[in-house]
Design brief:
Antioxidant protein with alkyl hydroperoxidase activity. Required for the reduction of the AhpC active site cysteine residues and for the regeneration of the AhpC enzyme activity. The active site is at residues 131, 134. There is one protein chain. The protein has 179 residues and is mainly alpha-helical. Helix content is 74%, strand content 0%. The protein has a single domain (3-178), classed as AhpD-like, CATH 1.20.1290.10. It has helices spanning 3-8, 15-25, 32-46, 49-59, 65-91, 106-109, 115-129, 132-144, 149-178. The longest helix has 30 residues, at 149-178. The radius of gyration is 17 Å and the shape is globular. 41% of the residues are buried.
Length: 179
């Protein structure tokens, strides 16, 4: 399986998504580990079995097992954190900020890969789930670590295209059955 298989699965109406998969992932200026770690973490977050299978197969060609595990960890920990921090924020009561999370998050301190890569993957996942608190936190950490806005922007582009592919292919699987 490959990125080409995922692109070829796109229906005609999703030509832009198909082309973006090739350009955003295939020709990214980011190092391969950052690209494929972000793509894998976002594929998990997209909840599309087809997208996850294809991206994981392609990512295995570019990631060590340790980096693959860290990308999966980013998706897992952010699934929890995005709900928790977005929920606290959306309630709108500032007193919730004084309450400790009391949730285990040790992987963030020791992800098994360069901290910048892990933070970038967490940011990409947070873009898909729409947690503004987490987006701001991870962007601030990345920028204070010397990461450029262009790098953050690339991660957002990857997240958006992976999510679009997942939405499209999941819709196609439902629509093709109902016809």
């Amino acid at each position: 399986m490959s990125l080409d298989a995922l692109k070829n699965a796109m229906p005609d109406y999703a030509k832009d998504t198909k082309l973006n998969l090739g350009s955003v992932i295939g020709t990214s200026t980011l190092p391969k580990q950052q690209v494929w770690g972000a793509a894998l973490a976002c594929a998990v977050t997209s909840r599309s079995a087809e997208v996850l299978r294809e991206i994981d197969a392609a990512a295995r060609e570019h990631l060590t097992e340790e980096a693959r595990g860290a990308a999966l960890s980013a998706a897992s920990i952010m699934a929890m954190n995005n709900v928790y921090y977005r929920g606290k924020h959306l309630i709108g009561d500032p007193e919730y900020a004084n309450l400790p999370a009391r949730l285990r998050m040790q992987v963030i301190a020791k992800p098994g890969v360069d901290k910048v890569d892990f933070e970038l993957w967490c940011l990409a996942v947070s873009a898909i789930t729409g947690c503004g608190v987490c987006l701001q936190s991870h962007e601030k950490t990345l920028r204070s670590s010397g990461v450029s806005r262009e790098t953050v922007h690339e991660a957002l582009r990857i997240a958006s295209v992976i999510h679009a592919a997942a939405v499209t292919l999941d819709a196609e699987s439902v629509l093709s059955v109902s016809v």
